[in-house]
From TrEMBL:
Residues 116-136 are annotated as: Disordered. This is SDR family oxidoreductase. It comes from the Bacteria. Residues 3-212 form the NAD-dependent epimerase/dehydratase domain.
Amino acid sequence: MRVFVTGASGWIGSATVDELLGAGHEVVGLARSDASAAALEARGVTVLRGDLDDLEALRRGAADAEGVVHLANKHDWANPAESNRAERVSVETLAEALVGTGKPLLMASGVAGLAAGRPGTEADPSPAIGADSPRGGAENLAFGHVDRGVRAVSARFAPTTHGDGDHGFIALITDAARRHGVSAYAGDGSTRWSAVHVSDAARLVRLGLEQAPAGTRLHAVAEEAIPSREIAQAIGDALGVPVTSVAPEDAVEHFGFIGMFFAMDLAASSDHTRKVVDWTPTGPGLLEDIKAGAYRGA
């Protein structure tokens, strides 16, 4: 399959590209910089220059492909409205390019806000509806194209897709521990995060692209609910610093923007996902990765 991948040089995207190539697929990767383009070409990827604001490049990449994996996101935490706008417009552009083809469009999403007091499941619809909602309501927007001949699939990623080389949320929490000399959690540390190793996430993306029916919600979740206190303890042990609590209202001041997520309960299950695409996570767990030193140099 000729697969067009946005975010191909990113953390999850790089692993996904390797997974797709290893399975015999041809990959076309969107690249916005010379460095990204060179890195992709070195791995055997055909490069399409552009970014999420280059809608013509997105249309061309989707139209020329047999499947699309959309992983790119601006992640502009200082201006989330811009990230939401760009996500909605890019998903709409990709979906419109695939109307009537039956080709797959697998797009990245998240598990935040799915449920209260229990782990979110694949049966939970995304509460993000409309342009002003998180991610611009792109999951629901994409699923609105299913009846128009697009095999839209949502891959909802756990709040941490971890591994050696990750510079995402756990790296930011680790950086806060290094700055303050303490590894902290919010409140009593009972809030929970789901997690997945990057290798398992990449394999799920490939399986979803190849197998998932239109309108499927997949959860890239290997571990359902890790208490934030245990995450903080593992970071503290890895860095050799004490572990403490901060008040939930002080979490953003202590951690930066990531504090608002670390203080949230983001547990999710993947029971349905494992059955629908025969996915069994095999990578190390989050605490194992932290204790092994994956984030000491983050």
